[in-house]
Write a structure and sequence with these properties.
The complex is a heterodimer of chains A (179) and B (461). Chain A has five helices and four strands, in the order E-H-E-H-H-H-E-H-E. With 179 residues, chain A is α+β, with helices and mostly antiparallel strands. Chain B has a single domain, classed as Formate dehydrogenase/DMSO reductase domain (Formate dehydrogenase/DMSO reductase fold). In chain B, helix 4 packs across helix 9, helix 6 packs across helix 7 and helix 10 crosses helix 11. Classes of the chains: A alpha+beta (179), B mainly alpha (461). Chain B: InterPro entries: NrfD-like.
């Protein structure tokens, strides 16, 4: 069976934060810190770059706004001009509301589906789920995982390293699906 | 301010918001314990039976409406908008508190919202579903309800985008979709918690499917938190736009009593007021039924009552300002419309509204009333009665006396108006009770953030 990586448990958010700094400074790239809730400051401690999701949402919002304004203009000017109460066909102040609503709608889809894209979910199956203990990470446990895909990965050394920085219940995760 | 003072304040805050010795483990156990109950409590079953009965009333009344047409309602000329529009505005208004709690209070970093946001967001979803039903059915021929959508069709028929009625359709539809996305995004980490605690394979599969494979890694939290923040950011102007657009349905017409510029802010304040009333009613009931008084605490109820005091007072100010402007305008039709509200044949509706929306919230100046649970429960129901009458006053009283006395009429609902209105409670409570049974009613991940231990720098000082 192929090895996915090694996980180690830490006591609390502050231990996890310090561990993240150690792992980052040791030069690992393919690692993650798991917690039941977002821990403030972990992005810097892990050396993560700012999320690019904001740009995706911005572009989606812009497309939504252009689509909304364009749809109304096209319908009232070219597709089916309706004279209602003598109102002008290109009544752009009246188009603001639907333009705004569609901007919000498209940005919301961008936010949620963009988040899923960057997070690589839905992915219902993951080697980490083979660990019985890892389940508690969604309740009260804090874990660091270092993947075997990391160029600096060496099972022995990583185990010792995690032990040294205060990790407990160290476990090697095998990917049971891959032979 | 010194660090010590700040710290003790944070400590005190979290002590009020989570009673007893709470840890990450107890929070998980307490909140996920509710959907994990083997059997629902008897009160839940009774409530569910009642909700299903009301739902069947709705189905029956809806069937007759589709068969027979809107002639079965009490609407007439000149009162062409009756209970359908009143109920639509009432339900969509109730929804607003959910978004206020989940989005606006999130942006202001008010962490007391963390215990009640899930609850309130769910209420929003079902309230907006109830609201959306009314525009759908009031057109009479509901099989052509898709004409609302701007769909290219062989009749070359398009909606008039310069009309507030179509703005309203877009606003409420967007509001529902965004609320659903926001609610589901918030649920993902909690669904993962329920998946990891599941005892049976079926539960694990179902919760696992909806949890999308969440692993709680910071590489996931990073994007997740940004997405959540942006959703909160865009929901904030959205929620303010929704009831403003609803108010434009009235304000852009030339009916005395409707044609006023104060409507958008006044409608938004009223919406939040009624929504908090509904959150309060549901929260008081659920926290005692499921013994979660340490997670939804007296302090939460107190803070909600303060928001009701604020929004209720804005509503009261708006009522006074409407009266002032109707006199100041010098327009006889405008003045008459308002005098007729207070002293005309529907005076009882007007004064019910004044009592529930203006006088009642003034009790919330006093902490004694804000923390008295039975008082809050009764007051929260009266708030929603008052807000229903506000819409009755606006819709019916403004229409029933037209410019010409020859066009005056009185309005009374028929049994079918009442049956459909009661029926929407069936939809609302069926949905809400199923939510209580199968999903965590408070956000497991976010409630933990209220604990001082969740801060990695806790204990550094």
């Amino acid at each position: 069976m192929k090895t996915y990586g090694i996980i180690a448990k830490f006591d609390d958010p502050s231990a996890l934060l310090h561990a993240a700094e150690e792992v980052r400074d040791a030069g690992f790239k393919n690692f993650d810190c798991h917690s039941p809730f977002p821990v403030h400051g972990l992005d810097d401690a892990m050396g993560l770059k700012r999320s690019r999701l904001g740009y995706v949402i911005g572009v989606c919002g812009l497309i939504g706004a252009l689509f909304g304004f364009g749809l109304q203009t096209w319908v009232h000017l070219s597709e089916y001009p309706m004279n209602i109460g003598g109102k002008p066909f290109f009544a752009y102040p009246a188009y603001v509301i639907i333009t705004f609503e569609l901007m919000v709608l498209f940005s919301a889809f961008g936010a949620v589906f963009g988040m899923m894209y960057f997070n690589k979910i839905p992915r219902l199956h993951h080697p980490l789920f083979y660990s019985e203990k890892f389940c508690s990470v969604t309740s009260d446990a804090f874990y660091v995982s270092i993947e075997s895909a990391d160029p600096k990965y060496d099972e022995r050394k990583v185990e010792d390293f995690l032990k040294n920085i205060g990790g407990k219940e160290i476990e090697v995760i095998k990917d049971e699906n891959e032979k | 301010m010194s660090e010590v003072v700040l710290k003790s304040r944070a400590q005190k805050n979290s002590e009020e918001l989570l009673l007893g010795d709470q840890t990450f483990t107890t929070i998980t156990n307490d909140i996920s314990g509710v959907p994990e109950q083997e059997k629902a409590p008897i009160q839940w079953k009774l409530a569910f039976a009642l909700a299903l009965s009301l739902l069947s009333v709705f189905v029956g009344a809806l069937g007759y409406l589709i068969w027979e047409g809107t002639g079965i309602w009490g609407v007439n000329a000149p009162i062409g908008w009756g209970w359908a529009i009143i109920n639509f505005v009432w339900w969509v208004g109730i929804g607003h508190a959910g978004t206020l709690i989940s989005a606006i209070l999130h942006l202001f970093r008010q962490n007391w919202r963390n215990s009640i946001n899930r609850f309130a967001e769910t209420m929003t979803l079902f309230a907006v579903i109830c609201a959306l039903i009314f525009p759908g059915i009031h057109i009479g021929r509901i099989w052509v309800a898709y004409w609302f959508f701007p769909l290219p069709n062989q009749m070359a028929m398009w909606p008039n985008f310069r009309s507030p009625l179509i703005w309203d359709f877009f606003a409420v539809f967007t509001y529902f979709t965004v609320s659903l996305l926001f609610w589901y995004t918030g649920l993902i980490p909690d669904l993962a918690t329920l998946r990891d605690r599941a005892k049976t394979k079926l539960r694990k599969r179902i919760y696992g499917f909806f949890a999308l494979g969440w692993r709680g890694g910071n590489r996931q939290w990073q994007h997740y938190e940004l997405a959540y923040l942006v959703l909160a950011g865009i929901s904030t102007p959205l929620v303010l736009s929704v009831h403003s657009v609803v108010s434009s349905d009235f304000a852009t017409s030339v009916i005395p009593g409707w044609h006023t510029t104060i409507f958008p802010p006044y409608f938004v304040a009223g919406a939040i007021y009624s929504g908090f009333g509904m959150v309060m009613t549901l929260a008081v009931a659920a926290r005692s039924l499921y013994n979660l008084k340490h997670i939804i605490t007296i302090s939460h109820l107190d803070k909600m009552a303060q928001i009701m005091l604020l929004t209720g007072s804005i509503v009261g100010y708006s009522y006074a300002m409407e009266f002032f402007i109707s006199w100041y305008s010098g327009n006889p039709y405008e003045s008459y419309a308002f005098i007729n509200r207070a002293l005309g044949p529907y005076w009882w509706a007007y004064w019910t509204m004044i009592f529930c929306n203006v006088i009642l919230p003034q009790f919330f100046w006093f902490k004694r009333f804000r923390t008295h649970v039975p008082f809050l429960f009764i007051a929260s129901i009266l708030v929603n009665i008052g807000m229903w009458f506000e819409r009755f006053v606006i819709v019916v009283i403004s229409l029933h006396r037209d410019y010409m006395p020859s066009a005056w009429a009185m309005y009374s609902p028929t049994i079918w108006d009442i049956a459909i209105y009661l029926g929407t409670f069936g939809i609302f409570f069926t949905g809400f009770l199923l939510f209580l049974r199968f999903l965590p009613m408070a956000s497991i991940a976010e409630v933990k953030l209220v604990l001082p231990e969740s801060n990695p720098h806790h204990g550094d000082h």
